[in-house]
């Protein structure tokens, strides 16, 4: 069901809209968590390290899919808020076509350079074979990744956050079962883990596309929508390219950090692999809610309701702080129990590495949550330059500090400390950009005119 986010109390609208998004990302993360869980529990620490090692490369591809999602979602939200339904349909068709070309190019590049990327991050020889198997199967499934992300972006733009939730709940649950089946019964090892994700994500992608096309056919317009528009593609690209660059540079930064981590051996790699999956469960959840806030912002921007954007920002902060609290408490005090999803030895070196990471990073989830909500309004109102500056500051600091601190301390703990430092500085920048945004000045002027 399509929902207009420009009416109703902002806090109520956001809770109803974003909670299914939060549920969706929990299930989406089960794909990656399931891979690591089955690899670590049923195969061993080497398999867990191999999956985690490959995961950093897959984040580059996810960055492009995420960019297509955000670009399409923000533009479609604006057009939907402005009731330009014919242009809205054209924007969707244009995204679907452009995504096909982008996905095809990435698949070719991925197959050609995957081994070189593995060597670039200092993958140990003992893990190279399994890492490449996982990565190549993942690349083969990129069309499913792209079109599922675009489909969820479309649903969110139309104010529907429940439909993607139902798809993901079913497919991610199935993924866990197929993972276990392929590894324990068919003895396919790391390849079985990757194949399970390929199959289940493929099914959810096809179903999502079918529902998107049915939803579009039900929306009546006065004139037939064009299949492609270069002008609308440009509008989408203005949002998508910075988002892709943001996520890509974050991925490249993570690859550099992964290379530093790999120098500390398999136990540190395995501990980090488990801990980063738990950490990414929170970060991806915040990113998804941030995307929802961007949809809310873009719809209200399109409708000219600027005061609702400010109200929505304050409401979104309360929401994410509430959602962060149980994660902070669990990870800080009981992180070892979460890591048991991926490991069997409660007292092992890998477990200790993971626990240390979670205790250093988790208290600062409130900080990164604040940044994500501020960034969502910057993106939703089209202030992509400021959004990029804040993101690159975070990334640059984390990469540089990870290298420097790990060297000075001769310990992987130095790497983990780079997370909170980067988050604090970049969050301060995002808040400055938010409060200095031109639309806020216009909103204040409009209020002054009303008072007069």
Description:
This protein is mostly helical. Helix content is 86%, strand content 0%. It is built from 15 helices and no strands. Helix 1 runs antiparallel to helix 7, helix 4 packs parallel to helix 7 and helix 8 runs parallel beside helix 13. The chain starts with 9 loop residues before the first helix and ends with a helix. 52% of the residues are buried. The mean pLDDT is 86.
Overview in brief:
This protein has 452 residues and is mainly α.
Notable characteristics:
15 helices, 452 residues, 86% helix, mainly alpha
List the helices and strands and how they pair.
Elements (H helix, E strand, L loop, with lengths): L9 H34 L1 H37 L3 H36 L4 H16 L1 H16 L4 H24 L3 H30 L11 H33 L3 H37 L3 H34 L9 H13 L3 H16 L3 H26 L3 H23 L2 H14 L1
Helix pairs in contact: 1-2, 1-6, 1-7, 1-9, 1-10, 2-3, 2-4, 2-5, 2-8, 2-9, 3-4, 3-5, 3-8, 4-7, 5-7, 6-7, 8-13, 9-10, 9-11, 9-12, 10-11, 10-12, 11-14, 12-14, 13-14
């Amino acid at each position: 069901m399509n929902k207009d986010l420009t009416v109703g109390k902002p806090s109520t609208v956001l809770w109803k809209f974003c909670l299914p998004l939060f549920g969706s990302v929990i299930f989406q993360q089960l794909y990656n968590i399931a891979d690591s869980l089955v690899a670590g529990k049923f195969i061993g620490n080497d398999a867990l390290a191999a999956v985690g090692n490959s995961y950093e490369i897959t984040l580059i591809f996810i960055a492009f899919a995420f960019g297509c999602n955000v670009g399409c979602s923000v533009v479609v939200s604006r057009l939907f808020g402005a009731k330009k339904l014919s242009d809205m349909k054209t924007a969707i068709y244009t995204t679907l076509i452009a995504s096909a070309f982008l996905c095809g190019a990435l698949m070719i590049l991925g197959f050609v350079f995957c081994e070189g990327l593995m060597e670039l991050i200092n993958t140990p020889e003992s893990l190279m074979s399994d890492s490449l198997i996982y990565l190549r199967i993942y690349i083969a499934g990129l069309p499913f990744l792209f079109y599922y992300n675009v489909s969820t972006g479309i649903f969110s733009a139309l104010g529907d956050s429940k439909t993607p939730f139902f798809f993901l709940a079913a497919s991610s649950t199935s993924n866990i079962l197929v993972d276990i089946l392929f590894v324990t019964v068919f003895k396919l090892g790391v390849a079985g883990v990757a194949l399970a994700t390929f199959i289940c994500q493929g099914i959810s992608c096809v179903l999502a596309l079918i529902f998107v096309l049915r939803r579009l056919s039900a929306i009546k317009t006065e004139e037939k929508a064009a299949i492609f528009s270069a002008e609308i593609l440009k509008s989408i690209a203005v949002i998508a390219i910075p988002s892709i660059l943001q996520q890509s540079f974050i991925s490249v930064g993570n690859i550099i950090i992964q290379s530093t981590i790999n120098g500390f051996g398999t136990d540190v790699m395995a501990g980090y692999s488990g801990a980063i999956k738990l950490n990414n469960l929170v970060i991806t959840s915040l990113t998804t809610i941030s995307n929802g806030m961007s949809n809310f912002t873009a719809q209200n921007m399109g409708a000219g309701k600027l005061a609702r954007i400010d109200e929505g920002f304050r409401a979104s902060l309360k929401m994410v702080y509430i959602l962060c609290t149980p994660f902070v408490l669990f990870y800080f005090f009981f992180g070892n129990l979460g890591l048991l999803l991926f490991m069997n030895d409660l007292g092992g070196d890998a477990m200790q590495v993971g626990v240390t990471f979670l205790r250093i990073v988790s208290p600062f989830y409130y900080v990164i949550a604040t940044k994500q909500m501020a960034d969502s309004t910057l993106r939703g109102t089209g202030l992509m330059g400021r959004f990029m500056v804040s993101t690159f500051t975070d990334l640059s600091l984390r990469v540089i500090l990870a290298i420097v601190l790990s060297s000075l301390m001769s310990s992987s703990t130095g790497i983990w400390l780079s997370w909170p430092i980067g988050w604090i500085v970049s969050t301060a920048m995002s808040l400055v950009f938010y409060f200095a945004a031109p639309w806020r000045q216009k909103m204040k002027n409009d209020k002054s005119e009303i008072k007069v």
